Queue: 2 jobs
Job 1
Amino acid sequence: MDSQTERLNAIWQRSVEAMKQVVREFRITQDELHAAGDYFDRLGQSGMCRSLIDVALAMTSVEATGAADHGTRPNLEGPYHAVHLERPDGRLIADPIPEDMPRLCLSGRVTDALSGRPVANAALDFWQADSRGRYDREGNHLRGIVRSDHAGWYRIETVVPDDYAEHDYDPIGELFRAMGKHNTRAAHIHLKASVDGHDLLTTQIFMSNSTFLDKDYVEGAVSEDLVTTLVPDGDGGFRASFDIALAGVPA
């Protein structure tokens, strides 16, 4: 038996033992087990299994694997990443922008988490929902890659994202409603950072104006260090800053 097979068997056995304890503690009936099985059938058919696992366990995985020991805290990638275009001018938006979508200028500096030195030419891959909580799943609106300059600085022009509920009509929403929970994410911008082709960070930048910062349905996703403060720019838009500290920068 190879090491991967042994690992899989060990994980299966430990998981089953943990579930057996839950069955004993709550005296779960066979009818309830079958109802759970039927639910997982629906979940699989919907293509939502990965999303539910992320909601329940991904942040625990981030912590358990030590990925947050140095630098900016990692976070979920989520289901909506794609291959994005380079944006040399930093603009993720295209005019005209609807009046209910306030502009946002987000800037900051990329540094080496260990040395504190600026990191030039880091590829910063951004994607987000718009000010109505909608992602562009077919095009490149509010998506793109910008690079830090020689001193590590970056700047993007985008819109302020909004909170959004994404599971109203799928089995995850069904489960949450049964538990009396909402399915709303706190407004955020996704970020993947790489240097010389090495992926070093995947995280989320949360907006200070979100009403769900303390109750995002992904437990443990929001932390104070990942929240950026929105400051009115005097012209109906906002500016904000977010510095990025990367662990494992190639020498």
Job 2
Amino acid sequence: MKAKPRPPLYGLMAEFQGPEGLLEATKHAHAAGYRRMEAYSPFPVDGLAEAMEFRRSRVPLVTLIGGIIGGCGGFFMEWFSATIHYPINVGGRPLNSWPSFIPVTFELTILCAAIAAVLGMLALNGLPMPYHPLFNVDRFDQASRDRFFLCIEARDRKFDRETTRRFLEGLQPLGVYEVDH
């Protein structure tokens, strides 16, 4: 009988008792050259983002672009309707009277920036994510209660199944688990 092939590996995950162990393990993993890793904890751990060299978010740029598009779109809509589509001469006022366009321009700037911020945050975070390979590990449900986890992904350049396992075991975790796709 032919043996079943092993499912592709997502990574290796180590479980720690407290935030100090997770923080130290993350610092050691980063110093060892691992870059594709994620840490999971039931509450924010001070210094963890810095230990992982967390990159700045692109959500502010997406929000700015959304606001600029909304502002330009609002101004163009007002200008087009007042000067091209339906020009009305009121008391000799010029058709392109930009001060009257400001409220709509402002409102559309804010609206489009807010929508871009929400959609950009969801897209850049990869949400919604109804399934993640970490959910296959039985102990991972403790991440929202009282355990701390560090997962080194298999797509990391330095990742080798046995070498990474030995490295994680050297950090004194409660356990090291394989995370299948």
